[in-house]
Inverse folding.
């Protein structure tokens, strides 16, 4: 052992003293801080920021490290070092000391980048975030670099030509690093950034990520044993004869590691299948035909403290026999061997199930990335369940008939989870669990529990934010609080009331429920890029008006149109002759102007859209694109507002919502409402107010 550590010391010095290698340390600094400047760290969640930066570094840096390490590996294989190979112990320790020296050398080169990066996090965000961020870096980089170094060693042992082995390794790693893979598989380095969350971090990627790291380590150990075996043949030494005990131990260890690698690989692939599960659109649509005919639908759910493991029981009473299998839309992670249906006479059914609630990939996708049938599902996953977070919506895939509203719901969850929001009628504690019971489920959002939230007050509104919310997140939520107060003052508390805003993962568009706004954690891209306070308020008000218009019924197409301001052709395809977009757009801008907090010239804005109808250059320069038809509607609404007055305009908006929130609002519908309220013909109102 003493000889081994002496050899390791020598190898480490050789690695560090090669001045060319220090260019690798400089490269890592450039890669990380080009991708993410130290100043921008204050605007981001520290763990999400660390995950993105370390994964980006891990994708690019191995390609350069291969050159550094292969050069280092072949130092003792040149002719001037042949005397070393006359010693058997040098041969035995060669590969292991090279691998460890390479790993220690890598972390020595990483140290400047890590110190600066973590120092910026400590100064800008808080030093309590340094250790969690460091764990993220080690979690991503350590297994990957163990694999990189061992793989380089194996290939260099087989191909004893420096240039040839470099080329082979670089080709292999280039293929792995730059292939397109949005979900975790066997050799994915890190989760897709779209999965990272300030509240639930890696979301559905959490388990496959853990299995992936373990798989890479196990595979690395298998490759190491293979390298040691090949080294006895390929390296220039004459090793002593192997003893039976050593052969037996080596064989057992090899078989055990190989079995562990296969099992871990199967787990990664199994989790990947659950993440990639498609929504059962046909079953969800079929459920709508039978929901009203169910005499009773009760659900009991027990959530384990061990993570995503849940146990459920659904009791269904129907006046007529049902083919249960045709109506199931349960989460894919619970459709397993533990799933059972018991059919009693008289239309009584009992469904028992247990497994992992894995939120599928489509629950994380941006709205415009989904196909039409998935968009129509709205809050399809209906929740998230893991060791840190429980989110339940009434129409969710945590119960078998997810599109039907249960008559009664009972949920048991660990007492150590803090309750952030609940509409339960009653709750009680039993042992280590807290039980919640709903006798009716009128609200869309049933329960939010987790320890990753904090509260603060802004503009008289309680904000429930991630504990380490980024500056961007705080800015967005405060902006929404101010917009909500403005909207409440305009529409009135009976129409739109606000007492708190809760930032919520997974839901695709804002939800207004009673006096609470559930704000999607996914940032609106326009809000992320916008610095103009007036435009930020307009964006927030558009989002809130969309939530108010839809109520508890998700209308993702409307949300898509309000968020994606650069695809007018898609708006027309989705909405046809719809006037809701110009109505909400004008109302949101009018609300900004009415608030008096920001300088917004509403007349100049309308004039822009009037000019855009005849000038393509003006149309291209607009912040929010409207078709010619919608621009015409916008101008007519502005004329109506000026001629009839603000009171009539807001009355028009309320009446339109009352009658058409569950269907398409056409131009003729809008014209009819205008006539009912003011006696004016919308198409005939001009700048002279029809006089």
């Amino acid at each position: 052992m003493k000889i081994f550590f002496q050899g390791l010391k020598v190898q480490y010095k050789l690695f560090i003293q090669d001045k060319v290698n220090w260019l690798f340390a400089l490269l890592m600094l450039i890669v990380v801080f080009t991708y993410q400047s130290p100043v921008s760290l204050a605007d981001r969640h520290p763990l999400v920021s660390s995950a993105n930066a370390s994964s980006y570094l891990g994708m690019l840096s191995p390609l350069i490290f291969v050159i550094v390490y292969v050069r280092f590996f072949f130092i003792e294989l040149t002719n001037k070092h042949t005397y070393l190979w006359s010693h058997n112990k040098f041969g035995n320790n060669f590969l292991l000391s090279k691998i460890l020296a390479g790993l220690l050398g890598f972390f020595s080169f990483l140290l400047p980048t890590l110190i600066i990066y973590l120092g910026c996090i400590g100064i800008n965000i808080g030093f309590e975030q340094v250790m969690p961020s460091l764990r993220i870096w080690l979690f991503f980089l350590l297994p990957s670099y163990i694999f990189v170094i061992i793989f380089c060693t194996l290939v260099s042992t087989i191909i004893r030509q420096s240039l040839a082995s470099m080329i082979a390794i670089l080709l292999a790693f280039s293929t792995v690093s730059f292939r397109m893979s949005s979900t975790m598989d066997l050799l994915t380095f890190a989760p897709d950034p779209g999965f990272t969350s300030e509240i639930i971090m890696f979301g559905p990627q959490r388990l496959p990520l853990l299995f992936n790291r373990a798989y890479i380590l196990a595979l690395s150990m298998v490759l190491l044993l293979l390298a040691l075996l090949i080294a006895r043949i390929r390296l220039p030494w004459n090793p002593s004869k192997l003893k039976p005990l050593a052969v037996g131990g080596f064989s057992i260890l090899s078989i055990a590691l190989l079995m562990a690698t296969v099992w871990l690989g199967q787990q990664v692939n199994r989790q990947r299948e659950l993440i990639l599960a498609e929504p059962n659109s046909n079953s969800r649509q079929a459920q709508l035909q039978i929901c009203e005919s169910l005499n009773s639908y009760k659900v009991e759910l027990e959530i384990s403290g061990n993570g995503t493991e849940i146990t459920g029981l659904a009791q269904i009473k129907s006046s007529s026999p049902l083919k249960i299998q045709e109506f199931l839309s349960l989460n894919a992670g619970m459709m397993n061997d533990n799933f059972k249906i018991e059919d009693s006479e008289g239309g009584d059914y009992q469904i028992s199930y247990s497994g992992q609630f894995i939120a599928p990939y489509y629950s994380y996708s941006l709205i415009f990335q989904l196909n039409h049938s998935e968009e129509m599902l709205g809050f399809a996953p209906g929740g998230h369940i893991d060791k840190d977070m429980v989110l339940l919506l009434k129409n969710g895939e945590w119960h078998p008939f997810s599109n039907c509203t249960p008559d009664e719901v009972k949920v048991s969850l660990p007492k150590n989870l803090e309750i952030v929001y609940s509409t339960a009628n009653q709750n009680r504690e039993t042992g280590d669990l807290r039980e919640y019971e709903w006798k009716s489920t009128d609200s869309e959002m049933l329960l939010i529990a987790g320890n990753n939230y904090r509260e603060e007050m802004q503009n008289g509104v309680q904000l429930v934010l991630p504990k380490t919310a980024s500056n961007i997140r705080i800015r967005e939520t405060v902006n929404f609080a101010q917009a909500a107060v403005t909207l409440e003052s305009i529409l009135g508390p009976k129409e739109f009331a606000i007492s708190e805003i809760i930032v919520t993962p997974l839901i695709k568009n804002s939800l207004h429920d009673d006096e609470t706004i559930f704000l999607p954690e996914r940032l609106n891209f326009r809000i992320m890029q916008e610095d103009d306070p007036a435009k930020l308020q307009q964006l927030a008000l558009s989002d809130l008006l969309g939530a108010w218009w839809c109520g508890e019924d998700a209308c993702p197409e409307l949300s898509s149109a309000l968020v994606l301001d650069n695809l007018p052709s898609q708006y027309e395809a989705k909405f046809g002759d719809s006037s809701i977009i110009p109505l909400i757009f004008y109302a949101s801008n009018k609300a900004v102007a009415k608030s008096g907090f920001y300088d917004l010239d509403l007349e100049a804005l309308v004039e822009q859209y009037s000019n855009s109808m005849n000038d393509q250059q003006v149309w291209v320069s607009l912040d929010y694109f409207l078709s010619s038809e919608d621009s015409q509607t916008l101008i007519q609404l502005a004329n109506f507002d000026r001629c009839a007055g603000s009171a009539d305009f807001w009355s028009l908006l309320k009446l339109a919502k009352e009658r058409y929130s569950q269907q398409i609002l056409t131009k003729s519908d809008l014209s009819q409402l205008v006539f009912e309220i003011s006696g004016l013909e919308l198409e005939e109102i001009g700048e002279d107010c029809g006089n």
